[in-house]
Amino acid sequence: MATLQNIRDKAGVLVAVVIGLSLLAFILGDFLGKGSNGFMNNEPIVGEVNGNKITYQEYQAVVNDLTDITKRNSKSNDIDQRTLNMIYDQAWDMLVMKYTIEEDFQKLGITVGKDELEDMIKGKNIDPQIKQVPIFQDPQTKQFDKARVVTFIKNLDQDPTGEARASWIAFEDNLVKNKINTKYTTLLQKAYYPNKLEVENQVKGDNDVVDFEYVYKKYSEVGDDQISFTDEDLKKYYEAHKYKFKQEESRNITYVTFDILPSNEDDLETKKVLEKQAEDFASIEDPIQYIMYNSDQDFNDTYYAEGELPANIDTFMFNENIGAVTDIYKDANAYKIAKLINIKELPDSAHARHILLQASEQMPVQEVINLSDSLQELLKNGADFAELALKYSQDKGSAIKGGDLDWFKKGAMVKPFEKACFEGKVGDIQVVESQYGLHIIEVLEQGVKNKKVQVGYLTANITPSEQTIGEVYNKASEFAGKNRTEEQFTKAAEELKMVPRVANNLKKTDRNIAGLESPRELIKWAYNNELGAVSENVFEFGDKYVVAVLTEVKEKGDAPFENVKAEVENSVIKEKKAQVIMEEMKKGGDNLESIAQAVNKQVQTASKIALKSFSIPGAGAEPVVIATALYGTPNKVTAPIEGNTGVFVIKPSEVKTENKATAEGETEKLRSAFSNRLNYQAVKSIKDASDITDNRINFN
Known about the structure:
Layout: H1 2-18, E1 45-49, E2 52-55, H2 56-74, H3 81-98, H4 101-108, H5 114-122, H6 128-132, H7 146-154, H8 163-191, H9 196-207, E3 208-218, H10 231-240, E4 246-247, E5 250-259, H11 264-283, H12 287-294, E6 303-304, H13 311-317, E7 329-330, E8 334-347, E9 349-357, H14 365-380, H15 385-392, H16 396-399, E10 404-409, H17 415-423, E11 429-434, E12 437-446, E13 449-461, H18 466-482, H19 486-495, E14 501-506, H20 520-527, E15 539-541, E16 544-554, E17 557-558, H21 561-586, H22 592-598, E18 604-610, E19 615-616, E20 620-621, H23 623-631, E21 641-642, E22 646-652, E23 656-657, H24 663-688, E24 692-694
Antiparallel strand pairs: 1-2, 1-24, 3-18, 3-22, 3-23, 4-17, 5-14, 5-16, 6-13, 7-8, 8-13, 9-10, 9-12, 11-12, 15-16, 19-20, 21-22
Helix pairs in contact: 1-2, 1-8, 2-3, 9-24, 10-21
């Protein structure tokens, strides 16, 4: 069943490739059929897409499949929270695509027929995914072999369980769905062609430059006492510019942390534990085994040169005999005793060659071991190492040089390999295993040898005791119990000289808050409570207990006036100051020098400004001013222009064409730019046009 597993793993690779790429996520749509039929009336609903309710059962089925594939790919049953979060998001994206983009495929009639599928698998147009499957490649050349595909398919029914054929059918289905996606993307790419106006603007933006004289007065130069406005002015501006004050659903919280740190008593107790072990550690015959069973720090068999150890023990280790131990000393959050385990004369560099053998579908582990044994026997009998390396080594970079790796320093190779080269003897043939496979090594030369020491550490980490943890929790719990309003929360934090932290604009799908470990439960709490609520339960995130207050609730749509009043006020102040400056400038008529005198400024010059310049030297980003200079009437003073940082009056010269951009070249640039952003924009457009409700916050 090795070939079956490989096909399954290949399907898993497809998932790994598309994590985070929503448009491609649907290629594993065969998973999406699970749980999609027959919704239960009272089954929890995770979300809704265009009227299609997504049940927890359907969503969890996709999560489970992706989780299984991830475990298979990583060859581990352990999945960290970050990867799990990615799986949650990908599962959701796959379901969203199922109920949006796949409907487009059906309407457009995009399909893959039986003949086309056969051509993709064993015809003239082999799909790249097929070519990448190891069992369909020649073991020696690694080139795709169509005959291997044909043989594999013919032998599918030799599996009495039927699992091999089922897995192959699922793999074919993935090929079909991926091909449909490619056709859809190609259709979108071919459908786009820049219009004449786009091309003309692009050419003009690349080619045209303009010089202009200008007078410029900053808003900051108008005193606040020169303007006035009322709340009615602010509300009027707000109503007229509501499009500027859209907001997405989010929450703001303020929280305090109670750090779970070791107490002075915990520090002393930790030291006492080490003091009790000190005598045994000093006299024990097998210190390495003692470290393995009693130390909080694993034994490291590395040999160190003088100057490579921590300064407080380096001199000691290079002036003592094997077995010598230091006094107890503190190192960060731990107490330690260091013991000199061994002393050797070792080189700082080595020259070696190797033959790398790796297990694969074509060569199982036992065959690799057998081949290794055979090659060692040949070498003992005088066989040429270089010839064997060229023929058998799977490290192709060194194989062509007879396996020669040249000279390398300590730290350049993986540890088992390095140990063999630096601690072995010149001329020895050794076999070591690393994460890359089996290495048959011959040490050719070694550098100058120097004294190296091996050190073992008996370490006791200083950690909070159960009593300390309980005391910190009680403080946090008392804080949460006594302070049930935002006002009480703030006052208590001040009295206790705590520094509240804020986490603003938290989205439903967020899973991170800076400084907190896996704070998803806190975000879920924020969405399930009312404004001003203080968390009743104390949250535990890593080495912190947390109590929070919900300080702001934002719903999707227009931001309430009071929430954006400060922003509105800034805009109104800017408008009012612009009016003051414009009135001053009008006194100068249509003469630039007179206008400059009216506002007590000098006439300035900007040279070779292009549409893509974005900014004016000394004035900053002023796109409206630049556009006016390029598209306005040459040699004529403009009316005052309200810019980003102040008010301008300009007098542009004739526009010059300095570059050589062509309509053909700019057309191709526009098409290329569209192609590069197609996937993202297609998905965004589909989502924006769809009615999507995401309730995953209630589940994970």
